[in-house]
Structure formats: structure tokens, C-alpha cells
Amino acid sequence: MKKFNSICVFCGANAGNQPHYVAAAVAMGKELAAQGFNLVYGGGSVGLMGEVARTARDNGCTVIGIIPEDLTTKELMGYPIGELIVVATMHERKAKMAELSDAIVALPGGFGTLDELFEAITWGQIGLHHKPIGLLNVGGFFDLLIQYIDHCVDEGFIRPQHRQLFLVDDDPARLLERLATHQPPPGLVRTDGLERA
Fold first, then answer.
1. 154: in domain
2. N or C: which end of the chain has fewer CB within 10 A?
3. What CA–CA distance (Å, rounded) separates 128 from 106?
């Protein structure tokens, strides 16, 4: 049984160079609708953002986009998809996306996607939220990133239990199912500054 209603999706404002990236965004949009989730995303109508949002909306999802005012002309490039909330800054965008969602999924993307993903992981690490986080590893896109994170664990910069802050899967349906039962790892810092056993 799912424990949440709204999924935040981080992904690229570009479509990438391989057709399987767009196919994965479409598959994720369809799966969000099939499992009855709402979509919270970055508000753009281009690239993978546009693909996942249009697909989710067209299959019955409630779609809420959050976009900073400075990016409305760069990332919209067309009509808004679903409800659009315009905020002042990138920081407000990320905070609002986190506020409105119960779980987080990252699809392929660039610097913006990585920024959003790592901030969400860091917030989980210090106990600002306990939302499950997943990477949709399309065609091995995140393999090198995962290797880097494992290297950070080996070198003592990330605690081994914090490696469990996110899940990785290459199948949208299975990833969403795993997120629904994911438990936060032990030893996270709570918002009061004390470690949780």
C-alpha cells in the first residue's frame, strides 16, 4: 500500500542525445498515472520535463509545476502543463517542490537535476525530511555517479548508512513500488540536531 500521494520528479530541460531518455520520461509519466500519483516537477514544457509532465497529465495525473520567474521564458517554450506556480528564486523552487511532494525521483539531466538531487539527499541526511529518493537509471545513465558516491563512502566522506538514502532502479514501476516501502537509514540527524539511532 502506498504511503504517499505526490511524487517530485527532477529531470533535464533537454531531451538528451538518445531516444531511450525520452522513452523513459514517457514511461515514468504513464506509471505515475497508473499508480494514482500526482506529479510535482520543475514547471518546464521542454526536454524530459515536458515529456514526463505532458504524459502524466494526458493519462490523468494532477500536475503541479514550480518555476522561478527568470526561467519562464527559457524553460516554458509553450503553454504551461497543469498548474504552474511561479516563484522568485531557484531556492524557493526547490523548497516548494519538496513541500508539495512525498517522494522524489530523478531522471537523467544536467547540472540543475544534480543540484536538486543532491540537495534533496543532503536534506534527508541531516533529517530535514525523510522522503524516499530514487534514481531512474536509464541505460546506465547514473552508473558513473553511483561509482563516485561509492568512492566517497570508501574514502570516508559519506557514511555507509547514508548510501542508503536513495534507491536505484531502471524500471519506473518497480522504482515507485520500492519507494513506497523504503525506510530511511539509521543514524540520521534530526532537525533538533540529535542523531537518530
1. no
2. N
3. 19
